[in-house]
User: What shape does this take?
Amino acid sequence: MGTLFRRLRKRTLLDGLVLVVALWGAYLLRFDFAIPEESVRSALIVTPFVLALQILALRRYGVHRIVGRYVSFDDLGVFAWSAVAWLVPMLAARLLLPDGVWRIPVSVSLIATILAVIGLLGVRLGQRLHAEVWSVSPSLPGETKPVLLVGAGEAGAMVARELSRSNTDLQVVGYVDDDPDKIGSVISGSFVFGSTEEIPRVVAENDVDHVIITFADPAPEVLQRIVGICGTVPIRARLIPSFLEVVQGTRSITAFQDVEVEDLLGRDPVNLDTAAEVVAYLEDRVVMVTGAGGSIGSELARQVAELSPSVLLLVERFEGSLFEIHRELSGSHQATEVVPSLADITDAARMQAIFDRYRPEVVVHAAAHKHVAMMEENPSEAIKNNTFGTKLIAEMSGEAEVSCFILVSTDKAVRPTSIMGASKRLAEMVVQQCNDMYENTRYVAVRFGNVMGSSGSVIPIFKEQVKKGGPVTVSHEKVTRYFMTIPEASRLVLTAGAIGQGGEVMVLDMGQPVRIIDLARNLIRLSGYVPGDDINIEITGLKQGEKLTEELYFEAEDMELTRHPKIFIGRPNGHRTLEATMANLATLVAGGTEQELRKALSSAISDSRLAGSAPPPPRVSRSGAAS
Assistant: This one.
């Protein structure tokens, strides 16, 4: 606090000196540098009073708090209002006071005000110039990396200033910008070379190390275009953090990050404004999350913990992942008791013990085997875990009168061609049947597409393949998938529990599906390589159970729009009882053949494409940029 007062006192003294010089300079200009003796005596008398009036006006509008190195055009209004605040009383005194030493000539008041504003601004602009030019920390000699800024707007200028005054190895060589009025100009000391189409030329002529995209929260299509241009060089592209992160102080404007392939997917995240509803059914409740160590389960656990449940039960059978999520949450949410429960959801005795001891009020069931190819090799395990595990937890929830049971499902459950999809479709059917059986529990299933960054998803696999030098493997040129982020998927799951009435399958409007081969090409370009030249794309052919395109719902589900414009509810036109089906599957899981199991699944799911389907013959080809 003492340091702040000293700085403010120093600024006030400097401002006072500027104001005195401006007043006496006005007298000199008014009288052609030959001030009459009577006016000198008048100026000596009025100077302290005028100075006091001006200092009060400056303090009233906060001019003394404006730090010189950060002064900008936006601050002009503060100086203008301060000038008006002292000029009006000075002119009033001239008009109302009788003749004498107290009357300041009108011309002196006007000239003094103009000189004062110029002086006050000039001092601060000088401080800013000193901070940006003469106080720049020199970069380490011989280690500078030339960078090109894409975007010569306010954010770009801010980045250039921060890099120039910081001790960094990055040196701005200039900008490119698609605004024709900016091309050829100099902004924050750097030249605007041309439009973004000129990136390859500017990079080559200036030996640029990488480009920095300085747009604030750019749209995916804008990023796609710029990354595509950079990919022709090729050159690495980076992004500035979001303005929200900068304003909140969590990151600096120069905390650059690589453009990730997730940024190019072309679908804006869906924000679900349901905080009050979600809090209402989770706050102060005992909430169980199964599969709590997985990609989705761990994020669900994080979001639930933020809503202050009384107890958060983390059910997970893998010790390492359970240890990590428990350590993370128990250290950051003191008001919630976080309980790690090492358990297999198919172990009836162990799960019953957990239900009896903790009496969960909300169950979020995320535990599942989800890898399509792996489940094709191990079909009985898929049914045992995904179907019978769900049945066990759902029935225990009903018997314990859990208020809400939420099943995390998948788009692969729609007209399933894979064992994994079929096992999840049966899980949905089990949940819908339980909704009819247990009147005190609401059962809701949530269905969505691929989750970016989850274990085993295509993007981490592509990154690993690029790191090894390729090839990047794609099953088919036309294969498409829906994508969403892990936090977004988790919000949808929790929202379903808030708005679901029971028996629904909730589906998120996921926008347009993405071609996987385009995803592969973009990731190769982002890594600084040219598809087909540096790293090949290999077409391997669809695997058994793999679809060319995914679907999110059946026509028979009669999709309805909820009050959330991006969430749909599917209400199936009825479902049959599953007792005979489940009994038959239990027998086959215990000792049947794979063919018998597939036939049983096909007969249980009317739209299944498992029966009689054979995997397409593998096709292997090399595909470059023109594929």
